[in-house]
Design brief:
By secondary structure, the chain is an alpha/beta fold. It is globular and about 60 Å long. It has 2 domains: 202 residues, Alpha-Beta Complex (DHBP synthase); 103 residues, Rossmann fold, CATH 3.40.50. It contains 13 helices and 15 strands. The strands form 3 sheets. Strands 2, 3, 4, 5, 6, 7, 8, 10 and 11 form a 9-stranded mixed sheet that branches. A 4-stranded parallel sheet has the order 12-15-13-14, covered by helices on one side. The chain has a two-stranded parallel sheet with strand order 1-9. Bound molecules: adenosine monophosphate and magnesium ion.
Length: 349
Amino acid sequence: MPPARPKPPAQIHRGTPRTLARLARILREGGLVAVPTETVYGLAADAFSARACRGIFKAKRRPASDPLIVHIGSVDDLALVAEPNPAAYRLAEKFWPGPLTLVLGKKPRIPDVVSAGRPSVAVRMPAHPLFRRLILLAGRPLAAPSANPFGYVSPTTAAHVRDGLGDRIAHILDGGPSRIGLESTIVDLRNPRAPRLLRPGAITRAQLERVLGVPVAGPAGRPVSRRGPQLAPGLLARHYSPRTPVAILDRLPGAAARRAAPAEAWLFLARPRGRAGPGDFWLDARGNLPAAARRLFATLRRIDAKGFKRINLSLLRGGGLAEAINDRLRRAGRPSPAAAARSARASRS
Ligand code: AMP
Ligand code: MG
């Protein structure tokens, strides 16, 4: 047999009317397109096509047990894919288009691959203008998880998508760096009297509670502690890890101690006092939280590329966006599936 020819690397497209029309046709015909969103880049396919959505799992090497989010172009389409209730429409009116995903009962038109066999479906109306135009041109909802190989840090630029999936997908739509930079807030609204926050994001628990008028519980059905580990088994199983091991410390050491450990990276929220060493990184010079969220994944990737022995960080104080950033920092602190497999092999040999 002749050797397999390497696939041509993915093309990065600008969002001109002509390319949008072409990418919409590719989606209608069952193809995959990586798309910009305000949260992170997604890998999109026709949400009504089981075959197209199986392609997403294959490209990402994502286990079939991890469901996809369905993206709609208008609130009117919510009832096409899910069983909405009045609370869902109240949240949609307040936060859509935007970084909020609602988990509701699933309509039969959504294939089981999308929901990983669950009777529920996760739905969001994204705010990024290019992605919305693409959904409307495709004329159907698009299922999309983050456009990264399963287990790695989510992509917030078209170049990140190409770095991770460039030889497994053909088309990437470039919409600039993601404005929010963290995956959407996910709230389970199947019982609107007892909503549950499944994933913290830029729309905070307090914002949801103000609209819903009831407390929003954590993933396990109880309030989530701000510093303790997340207890939902489904969430524990998922990783968003850099390849470099991450250590979560109570506090980061002073400049002299950091300089004495040149193989280590130190990740701060704000620029640390004194002269910065080569291992010092910060998310935003002044510690502005939205800016820090926007740069978090790109910063982890940048550190990852430099070959440090370890990334040391400490969790942020406070709720809201700090809760969402801490969730990603804790996940980064768990070994990725690839790293876990490597260390299992190493301990056997
Ligand atoms: P990603 O955007 O890559 O984080 O993938 C979508 C995420 O949405 C999944 O990992 C789940 O956390 C969540 N999700 C999707 N569908 C459901 C559902 N039916 N119930 C609960 N969570 C869901
Ligand atoms: Mg993901």
